[in-house]
């Protein structure tokens, strides 16, 4: 498979949905991906089983606050500098670029990055969605070693970190990110294809494109999207309150949706840290991480990232199940509610959300 200009809109729509509010707004990523394809040609998309065991995979993602990344765009040189540094350290050229997370602009920008460095894009990622912290990846769940983190910012700085753990990788990378203006390009868990087997969410690029295509030409885009995701609609209504604060390389806050029509009289609050974390009604949790919660435009079914939420928008809140890897004890330890400071036990969304409510 090759990604060309015509397929980017579907990929972007799917990545926006899988971003669960985070990963960066796709609106800023599509133009740079289109420009890169026009300049360098379509990007080959390869499966993990097409790579040799010794082939080197470079996961890439933007790190920082989405509210900053929406305004401070990345430079064309960042991925090149980063890959050159990895080649200098490891002594060999990477074989493929991988999106560290398939959600938001971090699922779309790797198309541009792969085109710019002349490498294929791997049909996989490390989350199957978006999460806000470096250690919240499938490679960590699988126990893969993390001994190298490389970062590149828009100024031209390149930082190499040798963390003792994935948690320390997050702390150190976040500090460098803040020093770079709360936005940077990051690579962690550089690995061979042999190491990666069993440790990735495979097929995620294809899945994002399928999600994006599901609403194309649909008479009822929202219903088409729900069916494609197997999602339940927690509420539909109007945004009546948005609270966001940027600090420490994150966006924290909440959004309140007041129900309309069949949901009249109800209020739903979604709490966020870059991504949507919890959905609550009258103190009752209807969905929580690691399951996916996405706010979409009710008419178009287009996902709305956290930095683009505004008072008065007519929205629907969808929730659906995460990849089974995140429901394992190790997965919940890394990215369950407790990992975000919530003193609650995780329950699957299909038990909590009262489908058909």
TrEMBL record:
Any Pfam family hit: S-Me-THD_N
Residues annotated as domain S-Me-THD N-terminal: 7-161
Transmembrane segments: none
Top-level taxon: Bacteria
S-Me-THD-like C-terminal domain: residues covered: 166-349
InterPro entries: S-Me-THD-like_C, S-Me-THD_C_sf, S-Me-THD_N, S-Me-THD_N_sf
Name the UniProt record assigns to this protein: DUF917 domain-containing protein
